[in-house]
Amino acid sequence: MIYLIDDKESRQRDYGWDEKMFQEYSEFLIHIRDVHELKERYKNIFNNDNVLLIHESFPLDNWERDFHTLLNENKLPIAFFSGSKNARFVEDNICMLPPNVLYANLATFVKTNCKTFQSFRTLAFGENDIIEEEIRQRVKSCKIQNTKDDFGSDFSSNKKMFFAIAQDNIDEVPFLNDSQLTKNWDFFSEEKLQKQISDIELDSFVRHFLSNVFYDVIYIPLYFGNVWSDYLGLRLALHIRLTKTINQRTPIFIYGVSSIDELINNECFDVLKLSGVRLIQSDNKSLVGSLSDSLTTLSIGREINKIYLPIPTNIGDNHSVVNKWSIYRWSKTLGDWDKDIKKNNEDIYTSLYFKYLTILYPESEISYMKDDYLRLKKTEQMDINVVLVDDEADKGWYELICHILSDVNGIVPDYIGDELNGLSQEQIISLVMDKIKNDNDINIVILDLRLNPIDFDESVKNMTGYKLLKEIKNHNRGIQVLMFSATNKIWNLQELQKAEADGFIIKEAPENSIDSSFTKDVISQFVDNLSRCSCNIYRKALWEKFQNEKKQLEMLRRRKKINMEYERAVRTLLTMTEDALFSQNLKYPFATAFMNLFRIIEATANEWIETEPVVEKDEKGYFVRSFFKTRKSDSILLKFNSKQFEEPYRNNILEFDKENPKLPYFQKICNTLYIVGCYNSDAFEIVVKRNSFTHPNLIENSEIEQFTQKDVLSIAKLVDQLIMNQ
């Protein structure tokens, strides 16, 4: 049985392996998608008759040591695939190759190895294994012919040459034994270039051998490494062009026995479109003739648009590219170089793809942001507690956010990062919600939209970050949630806004960097969003207060202290207040929230106060006095000073006025607050403010009364007392 161990379903679909394909080959091929399934099946997997195909970044969690012990003990045929493998390697029962090659040849491999394991060659080369052998045969023939031909040893050149030779092809070059011809030449031949080669080795080669000595011409072989049909000479040539050394513009000859038509499908073929790069044959005539060729080389910056490079498979997908690229651009803008960021940026400087991006969008155009621009706007809110939820947090995001929050603003954030890897969507949501519920101090969450591999294939509503946003808001609408993601699709942003996200920050994709100020603008938006969220953390406690009030209303109704209509009305007004505060669209949310809360006071007054006066007469039926009273306790209403706050006198009864028989609104509200035990100077100011807003005097005041966060908190406190005291 062949076991494929790979967790990225999006990668499999990109290479043509969907569920239908796996089902077609299910008799001989079993797909392991996560570490839990791997643990359940390990006794069957580690059987001498089986073959393992495993992606190097498959998340093993804390089972990694046990897994590798089992591998060493059982000695099964095993193929490791990873995007860091730029070439194919086959030796005995070991194979290393890129994911695109594995999935391209997987069907052929299953067919030829379904009964007993034969070889990994069909996995590495597919049905076209003959090309590899053909190249080696042609190189061998060229070597034989070169030993017979006269290459004109009297030719000499004063040019300083660099000649790289693949170890297996050392007899291919006719110049090695002519000391006169090669007196200004440096030859390079190293055994390690026969092994598995990645961008790290190629970058190291360029920086080590081409950084200190200037050469007039560079020669590199088209074939080296374990698999010649990978044409790694093209990749090395592109590394030379994209790496900043004194030889970045030196003319390059790539020698081999292949034609351009044979190379056209190689991902680095475009290097041959650049000025100063030429493919030549390895025969004597072509090699010697190239010595007299004069190649003109233009700046790579002027020619970079001739090159197209696909996203490398070791990164995985566009989301991963965006994370790496954003961390790099942010670190350059902020000047932060923590170890995790250094590791990220080392990948930028060694990966061919990211070198390509740094030429497209030069580092020199990134402007540094001083700390003064990173300070949050002043807020009266205290105890700001932030948690970052991002599976890429440990790769540099946490340190960058720490620089802004902790180093500049004195707010130390918490984070959830690596522990998310390998978990299902349900497990991720459970882990994060447990953290938020158990740590009651958290009031701002910076939340990545994509936290699980399945998120790359789902609509926004099925993504883990979206579901977490809904869970957080269901737990407490007042917790501020700032979404952080690579998506810039307008429909995704609209859905997140509908789900009450309190802000959205786009992680910078390479194409965004065409605007050199984009990074700085996004960081400024991030700081502005954090400032706004910090000002709004009061909403968490306010929402909790509203929920407690709703519970109190239900209890009062069950005890028959209030009726169902009053409970329903007040609950509705509390929810309307929440909606006003948490809405992204209201221009005057504080005014709407204030007036909804005041309507609760009015509804309570209507429940408590009789609006018809009581007329008191003596025994003979003569009028004694008239007054107003409460409906529930028969208490007589008192007269309150409407000009300024003062406690009412107990014998200062609010009497009936024949000329104005209605119960004055101001007296009705103040009496309600007084009876329930809520009347004080703050309550008086609230009533006055409501009246000024409802009945504006535009002759004396040029503007309508405005409301602030402080006003909303003040009336919310008053309403809470009003409900709890009933």
How would you characterize this protein structure?
The protein is α/β, with parallel strands linked by helices. It has 4 domains: 2-128, Rossmann fold (3-Layer(aba) Sandwich); 132-306, Response regulator (Rossmann fold); 318-536, Rossmann fold; 541-724, no CATH class. Helices cover 43% and strands 11% of the residues. It contains 26 helices and 18 strands. The strands form 4 sheets. It has a 6-stranded mixed sheet with strand order 2-1-3-4-6-5. α16 (397-408) links the parallel β12 (386-389) and β13 (414-416). It is elongated. The model has no long low-confidence stretch (mean pLDDT 87). It comes from Pseudoprevotella muciniphila. This is Response regulator. InterPro entries: CheY-like_superfamily, iREC, Sig_transdc_resp-reg_receiver.
Task: Annotate the secondary structure layout.
Elements: E1 2-5, H1 9-14, H2 19-24, E2 29-32, H3 35-45, E3 51-55, H4 64-74, E4 78-81, E5 89-91, E6 94-97, H5 99-113, H6 121-125, H7 130-148, E7 161-164, E8 185-188, H8 199-209, E9 217-221, H9 232-242, E10 252-256, H10 260-263, E11 277-281, H11 284-290, H12 300-303, H13 318-334, H14 339-350, H15 352-360, E12 386-389, H16 397-408, E13 414-416, H17 425-438, E14 444-448, H18 464-475, E15 480-485, H19 490-498, E16 503-506, H20 518-535, H21 538-558, H22 564-582, H23 589-608, E17 614-617, E18 623-627, H24 665-675, H25 681-694, H26 709-724
Parallel strand pairs: 1-2, 1-3, 3-4, 4-6, 7-8, 7-9, 9-10, 10-11, 12-13, 12-14, 14-15, 15-16
Antiparallel strand pairs: 5-6, 17-18
